[in-house]
Write a structure and sequence with these properties.
The complex is a heterodimer.
Chain A (H helix, E strand, L loop, with lengths): L1 H11 L4 H5 L2 H11 L14 E4 L5 H10 L40 H15 L5 E6 L6 H12 L5 E7 L8 H4 L5 H7 L3 E6 L3 H9 L9 E6 L23 H11 L3
Parallel strand pairs in A: 1-2, 2-3, 3-5, 4-5
Helix pairs in contact in A: 1-4, 3-9, 5-6
Chain B lengths: L1 H14 L3 E5 L8 H6 L4 E3 L4 H13 L3 E7 H5 L3 H10 L5 E5 L17 H6 L5 E3 L4 H10 L7 E4 L21 E4 L4 E5 L3 H14 L4 E5 L2 E3 L3 H7 L5 E5 L8 H12 L6 E5 L12 H7 L4 H14 L11
Parallel strand pairs in B: 1-2, 1-3, 3-4, 4-6, 5-6, 8-9, 8-11, 11-12
Antiparallel strand pairs in B: 5-10, 7-9
Helix pairs in contact in B: 1-7, 3-5, 8-12
Classes of the chains: A alpha/beta, B alpha/beta.
Chain lengths: ~260, ~325
């Protein structure tokens, strides 16, 4: 998947590199081992819903959806191109498998509350997963949504937080400290799990035991490394977003994942 | 008008299980009867407008038709990005019922006065903007909202506004209602400015001036065909709105004329609130009067404009 992500970056000469690479294992385990979805029937009313609320991490999602056959792998090469279905943020109706258009931060959890509440009201068994960035949860609307989810006791709703500790400018601790993060989610009425977001087995275990507590929404804080797998980008805010790549940066990609 | 619109939500909910009421923190007892009859579809979600709009989007994605209700300024300014992205970009059937459009909350000051809501809502692709003139029209309008595709912004007046709409005119979203045939003047109104236009037309009639009235309850999509039909032969086109001059009804009408005709349309007078926040309290009526939107002031402005305008009736193209 990292090769696919970096292939898109190389083709387009741009992309949110670090925010996609920290998400890889989260997306892989969620879509492969947890979500009840069928690439041949992406509109199945009983499918589980997943929203990438940190829409700027879309390269990871695109790689996964292409790999799973939601659309051809060749689409990845057109990332951000004039006629591509794959933009710099994912769009509902454009990309098969994308449940909501995201990119503006702080929207996904509220939409997820609506989806989960609808499942409750309609007595349907689908579950709703929302992937959030750590910088994203600076947005007050996320905490409004958290209160709403807890009010309704939405144990069919799961928030996964990609806690890579870096946002666009720099460390989350510097920009707007989040700690004590687990306590925050707990105090907002969520059952909280913490996991190494790159440990596939650990992620699988946590995501196989849902809801963590009956009657409560679940928050899974995934400790990750921004830019994971590309040494030059790891824990380096400079790789949050690239709108052009230098020769040395292209070399760094080539060294990390080989020629492809 | 507000009670009527609220009661219509209850009525629609009884008819269609997709209908939800979602309030933020409305007045005590709002839709109490609905909360008793349909407790699961009467949702009070707190002073969290950004979240409520997103949540409504999620519910609408699953086939519900949420009617979201709070004060107009909070439903437009506070959560504009959610309205733009979650509702309009996804083109979802969420209905925004905005209490206190215009200067209804005059005594509560500028934080509660929705003076630019039409402009910012109509700027959004896929959004429909409706301003009913009275309770009867609000009831007819609500009937039409159930199956309308895409989001709707509904700007409600104060309540107790004089009933001037007529059942025989019916109501169709996007179809203007010709209340009086065009004469020397055509007034185009939206919302509760219709009442003032009717009174101003009577004053003008006493001066021997014939004034037509086209009630544009739907500001978006604008009924351009009705507008172009109604301005034939008029000397002066007047727009009336309880809104700042930028981006509201007057702007929409001017844009339509320029886009459709380019030139050769009647002289135009836009009567509106000034381009500033109100720093006076009092009442809706007193603020409208202060800004030249009483019936008498409207009639006077029109007389002056007619006197200043010596252009002959233009030859208009047909649509």
């Amino acid at each position: 998947m990292r090769r696919l992500v970096l292939g898109s970056v190389r083709s387009a000469g741009r992309g949110h590199v670090g925010p996609a690479l920290s998400l890889i294992e989260m997306v892989r385990v969620l879509y492969d081992d947890v979500l009840r979805i069928d690439p041949k029937n992406p509109g199945d009313p009983d499918r589980d819903r997943a929203i990438l609320s940190k829409g700027h991490g879309c390269l990871a999602l695109y790689a996964l959806l292409a790999d799973r056959g939601f659309f051809p792998l060749s689409e990845l090469d057109g990332f951000c191109g004039p006629d591509s279905i794959l933009g710099g943020h994912p769009e509902y109706g454009m990309v098969p498998g994308v449940e909501a258009s995201t990119g503006a931060l702080g929207h996904g959890l509220s939409i997820g509350v609506g989806l989960a509440l609808a499942a409750r009201m309609r007595e349907r068994s689908y579950r709703t997963f929302v992937l959030l960035g750590d910088g994203e949860i600076n947005e007050g609307s996320v905490w409004e949504a958290a209160m709403g989810a807890a009010k309704h006791g939405l144990d069919n709703l799961v928030a996964l937080i990609d806690y890579n500790k870096l946002q666009s400018y720099g460390p989350t601790d510097y920009v707007l400290p989040l700690e004590p993060l687990a306590d925050k989610w707990r105090s907002f009425g969520f059952a909280v799990q913490e996991v190494n977001g790159h440990d596939v087995g650990a992620l699988r275990n946590v995501l196989k035991q849902l809801p963590a507590v009956a009657g409560k929404p679940t928050a899974i804080i995934c400790h990750t490394v921004k830019g994971k797998g590309l040494p030059a980008a790891e824990s380096n805010a400079d790789w949050h977003h690239k709108n052009k790549l230098t020769d040395s940066e292209l070399d760094a990609i080539r060294v990390a994942v080989g020629d492809f | 008008m507000r009670n009527t619109a609220m009661n219509m939500v209850h009525k629609l909910a009884a008819r269609d299980e997709r209908v939800l009421y979602i309030g933020s923190d409305p007045g005590a007892g709002t839709l109490r009867a609905m909360s008793k009859e349909f407790p699961k579809r009467h949702l009070i979600e707190g002073i969290s407008e950004a979240h409520i709009i997103g949540m409504s989007a999620g519910l609408a994605m699953e086939g519900f038709v949420p009617y979201v209700n709070t004060i107009a300024t909070f439903l437009t300014r506070r959560c504009y990005e959610q309205v733009a992205v979650d509702l309009c970009l996804h083109n979802l059937p969420v209905r925004l019922i905005a209490n206190g459009g215009g200067l209804v909350y005059a005594p509560l000051g500028p934080t509660h006065q929705a003076i630019e809501d039409i402009a910012i809502m109509r700027a959004l692709p896929n959004m429909t903007v409706i301003c009913p003139c009275d309770a009867d029209e609000a009831a007819r309008m609500m009937e039409q909202t159930l199956d309308w595709k895409g989001p709707i912004y509904i700007r409600l007046g104060k309540g107790g506004d004089a009933i001037v709409s007529k059942a025989e005119h019916g109501f169709e979203i996007g179809k203007a209602i010709l209340m009086r045939p065009p004469g020397d003047v055509l007034m185009v109104t939206t919302g509760i400015m219709l009442q003032r236009a009717l009174a101003a037309a009577d004053l003008l009639a006493a001066q021997g001036l014939r004034a037509g009235i086209l009630h544009m309850h739907t500001v978006k999509p604008l009924d351009t065909a009705a507008l172009l039909q109604a301005i034939r032969g008029t000397r002066l086109l007047v727009t009336l709105e309880e809104h700042v001059p930028s981006g509201g009804l007057g702007s929409a009408v001017a844009e339509a004329l320029i886009d459709k005709l380019g030139s050769g349309f009647p002289a135009m007078l836009r009567l509106s609130l000034p381009d500033r926040f109100m720093h006076n309290y009092g009442s809706q009526d007193s603020l409208l009067k202060k800004h030249g939107l009483s019936a008498g002031a409207i009639a006077t402005s029109i007389e002056h404009a007619l006197a200043a305008s010596h252009t002959p009736s233009p030859q208009l193209h047909s649509t």
